[in-house]
Design goal:
The complex is a heterodimer.
Chain A: H1 2-5, H2 11-36, H3 40-59, H4 64-85, H5 90-112, H6 115-123, H7 131-150, H8 152-160, H9 162-167, H10 172-213, H11 217-242, H12 246-270
Helix pairs in contact in A: 2-7, 2-10, 2-11, 3-4, 3-5, 3-10, 4-5, 4-10, 6-10, 7-10, 10-11, 10-12, 11-12
Chain B: E1 20-31, E2 34-45, E3 49-53, H1 60-68, E4 75-80, E5 86-89, H2 103-108, H3 122-134, H4 150-162, E6 168-171, H5 180-195, E7 199-204, E8 216-221, E9 223-228, H6 230-233, H7 236-243, E10 247-252, E11 255-263, E12 277-281
Parallel strand pairs in B: 3-7, 3-8, 5-6, 6-7
Antiparallel strand pairs in B: 1-2, 1-4, 8-9, 10-11, 11-12
Helix pairs in contact in B: 4-5
Classes of the chains: A mainly alpha, B alpha/beta.
Chain lengths: 281, 286
């Protein structure tokens, strides 16, 4: 039993677990909207853009996290604008914008010769988080949760049916922008846990697991948050014993859970629906 | 409905006519390069029931959204009655049926601005259940929207619109993509709502199944071609100007029946010969 609690004797591990759990929950919260709005590719693109931002700010001897957030926000706003105009495909535009920023980042870290930092940004280094990192993640999570709490009805309507939401008085442009800003913040603070390469997985897998288990939006939101937090905890805990990279272990934990949820969902769907007198044409 | 014909334009009205819910005056809307609506005049009063017909891209949905206030015209004016509540029912074909949402959750979306809390109050839930009960969906509030039949799905979105307690109900192609029985059910429901005092505007492609049975229709192709009772304006000339294709209008029991004329590609002798020259009534999806 003592062996099970052994890692919690180390402060760095407690910090790592805290930041992984909060980040997982945050990714589960934001990811629900990302998946249901069909924005998964935006999450993937933004995660690459923030890497470029962090590298640019490093080259300028400025704070990498601030750079990641700033470029993430700019990229999110640009992507949001491109998605609405539909002149060129949004996925193509995102590919251009975010890949270019990622390439800039790679070029900069190569010139500056900072491979260790590159590894940390790309693949995550949750065991190296500081108290400041924990507070930052907690602050972003609290602000995001408050925004979702206060704008829940508008965000749900705009996600499900943007056209009618607009007609019913919801400012969908504002809602999309708000979501893009939350997404950029989430990706920025998640870099330390899973790294930019695997962030998209943590934004997508918990909500997809939740979707497999429920047909109700508010239950999906809760299940996704709890699943994300659980995967963060299990992933970091196992990474201690297995000596695997934390990001990869968190994503592997989520992927395993997905397989289980998929199996449960498939078995459940095999059962005939109860007869409730629904007239199916 | 006050407008009778595009060629006999409505005189400019300095003040809202009595009883008018909404008045559009020379409204022009534009997306990107070209105009979608040009100089549209329309006055809706309590109890009006109008169908808007026209080809795809003629501006029908844009006109509905302009009435609803979702689109701001680039020219002209829209005047709404004080506190006018409008319900909007989208095309069911545009709905994401795999979205994780129950029937009750979908209906409660109408209550967006009432409270800041995510959860609905017992009163809101009771109102939603009452609306569902009234539309024949009692007991289905906890079901996923995908588990309902086509007609029931349409009713869910009517229930959502009704929860806003509207004086004017807008329906975008309410019978699009549904079978004949469901079309009858939906139209029966809409007529009931109109009978209860609601003003109704709907768009449709179905000239014979829907439009010919409405009290009033508007033929639209970016501009208003004609407005009036179906018996008066469903003429070959008006329909050809609206659709840009020859359409014949027959009379059946005093009702206009629109038939489409087309030539098969293998007709080498021309329409005059009668071979390969067909007519068929214009229903939904034709």
């Amino acid at each position: 039993m003592e062996t099970l609690f052994e890692p919690f004797r180390y402060e760095f591990f407690v910090r790592a677990i805290c930041v992984a759990v909060v980040t997982g929950a945050l990714c589960g919260l934001v990811g629900t909207y990302v998946v249901l709005k069909g924005m998964s590719y935006i999450g993937h693109g933004l995660s690459h853009a923030v890497f470029g931002g962090a590298a640019i700010f490093l080259a300028l001897r400025l704070n990498a996290l601030v750079g990641a957030f700033a470029i993430g926000v700019v990229a999110a706003i640009m992507i949001n604008g491109v998605s609405r105009r539909r002149t060129i495909g949004a996925d193509a535009a995102i590919g251009v914008i975010t890949s270019a920023l990622f390439a800039v980042g790679i070029a900069i870290v190569s010139v500056l010769r900072i491979p260790r930092l590159t590894d940390a940004l790309l693949f995550g280094n949750v065991l190296g988080v500081t108290v400041r990192d924990v507070l930052l993640v907690a602050a972003v999570a609290i602000v995001s949760a408050v925004i979702v709490f206060l704008r829940y009805r508008q965000m749900l309507f705009a996600t499900f049916d943007p056209e009618v939401a607009e007609v019913s008085g919801v400012n969908t442009v504002w809602v999309d922008l708000l979501l893009a800003l939350i997404l950029a913040s989430t990706i920025t603070v998640s870099m330390t846990v899973v790294g930019v390469v695997l962030i998209a997985a943590m934004l997508v897998i918990p909500p997809v697991i939740a979707r497999l288990l429920t047909d109700s939006f508010h239950r999906m939101l809760w299940i996704s948050v709890v699943t994300g937090a659980f995967c963060g905890f299990v992933g970091v805990y196992l990474s201690y014993y297995l000596d695997w990279p934390s990001g990869a272990t968190v994503v592997l934990a989520a992927s395993t859970l997905f397989v289980v949820a998929f199996g449960v969902s498939s078995l459940r769907n095999r059962r005939p629906l109860p007869d409730v007198g629904i007239d199916v044409h | 409905m006050s407008r009778t014909s595009r060629r006999a334009p409505l005189s400019r009205i300095a003040e809202d006519p009595p009883g008018s819910l909404i008045q559009l005056d020379r409204v022009t809307c534009r997306y990107g390069h070209g105009p979608v609506l040009v100089d549209v005049d329309l006055t809706l009063r309590a109890g009006d029931f109008i169908g808007i017909v026209g080809p795809s891209g003629s501006g029908k949905s844009t006109l509905l959204k302009t009435i609803a206030g979702a689109i701001t015209p680039v020219a002209g004016s829209v005047r709404r009655g004080d506190g006018l509540a409008i319900g909007y029912v989208p095309q069911v074909e545009t709905v994401n049926w795999y979205f994780p949402i129950t029937v009750r959750e979908a209906v409660l979306m109408a209550r967006i601005g009432d409270r800041r809390t995510p959860w609905s109050t017992p009163r809101e839930r009771a109102e939603a259940d009452e609306a569902l009960e009234r539309l024949g969906l009692g007991g289905l509030g906890g079901r996923h929207i995908r588990e309902l039949s086509g007609g029931q799905q349409q009713r869910v979105f009517v229930a959502r619109a009704m929860l806003r307690r509207p004086a004017l109900l807008l329906l975008d192609e309410p019978t699009s993509g549904v079978d004949v029985r469901t079309r009858h059910d939906v139209m029966h429901l809409i007529h009931e709502l109109h009978h209860d005092g609601l003003a109704i505007v709907l768009t449709t492609h179905d000239l014979n199944g829907i439009a010919a049975h409405l009290p009033s229709i508007m033929c639209l192709n970016r501009e208003v071609i004609a407005t009036g009772a179906p018996g008066d304006i469903l003429t070959s000339e008006v329909l050809e100007r609206t659709y840009g294709a020859p359409l014949e209008v027959l009379s059946h029991g005093g009702m206009p029946v629109v038939v489409e004329q087309y030539e098969t590609p293998w007709d080498t002798t021309g329409p005059a010969s009668g071979e390969g020259h067909h007519v068929h009534p214009v229903y939904e999806g034709s």
